[in-house]
Specification:
By secondary structure, the protein is α/β, with parallel strands linked by helices. The chain is built from twelve helices and 23 strands.
Length: 421
Amino acid sequence: MTSQWSAPTAHGPVHATVPVPGSKSITNRALVLAALADGPSTLHAPLRSRDTELMAAALVALGVEIAAGPDGSWLVTPHALRGPAAVDCGLAGTVMRFLPPAAALAVGEVVFDGDEHARVRPMGTILTALRALGADVDGDALPFTLNGKGGLPGGDVTIDASASSQFVSGLLLSGARYEGGVTVIHDGQPVPSLPHIEMTVSMLRDAGVVVDDSLPNVWRVEPGAVDGREWRIEPDLSNATPFLAAAAVTGGEVTIPGWPTTTTQPGGAVREIFEQLGCAVALDGRGLTVRGPERLSGLDIDLRDESELTPTIAALATLADGPTRIRGVAHIRGHETDRIAALAVEINRLGGDAAETEDGLAITPRPLRAGEWRAYADHRMATAGAIIGLAVPGVSVDDIKSTTKTIPDFPGMWATMLGAR
């Protein structure tokens, strides 16, 4: 069910401090590692959104205990994974690509399915890799069935991960529990979103797993224990970008508290990107603060490693002073929707000038008009429409509920931000 939403227009510079919920990427990786650990784990300040609730529900279906702590934490007690179980992936790439390698360790049948849009997302790479490692899988896309045998031989596997870094991360997260560990070798065009693999490797090491990533495009996880531990979840830096964009669009000032000084999140790159747009950016004890310029600058930028920021940057590009070229993001055609095509269509429907290129977008600013911005069931498309609506009266987003994928109450947070003075 969709949910039409009139995007509020800012009537002056936005000045606000906006606390952002925890990182989806870190939360879902921590859940998988906690489920495979030798003892209990606690996730502090986890994201509670559709994607992470789906991951938690899937693990519970496989026999893991997950309880809510009094402070909003998640207490995870691992048990031997078992079927029969049904996993609803929704539209969550982290569920559909991280859970099958773990479910291969279960005893019994595990059936995976998801939303209609999820059934066309690339899955063949991870399922073919699991077969090569010894798994019994029926199907090459959602829905599919994994017939768990209680373990997996593991070993070496060569894949083409040029469509998604999640294929690599999914195999690495469970690899320590395979009899021979796992060595993942990438053979193809450059892997997109490498920071997400670096996040996976860092978290594995934090859990006591031995990982060798010293060779380009080769990752080796040794077999062994996974430690139960305390996980402290950072704010989701990519989800922070629409709120920072409000400062950029309106010439205001927005602060995101709790911004880490160092991070493996791709969203950390927004500091440099907003500076290139002409904003003033400062990281101090209050958090990360962005102050918008009188006029936004156009960009020529490669977002291969930060491709999830593409909708936000494209929305800002429509309101900039000069043209923008976004490169290196061909793989986002396989995300929640074909984001390149969707952004071009929606920008042009509002009177803008956006052209698809082989690996991105070319956007030339034009005066925009009121109209409906379609989200395509994609949370980042929805927030891009909200950004444009700050400067263009009469913009509506057809499916604002899609933002619950990673932000529990985006409309409420947006309204609070605009009401802060």
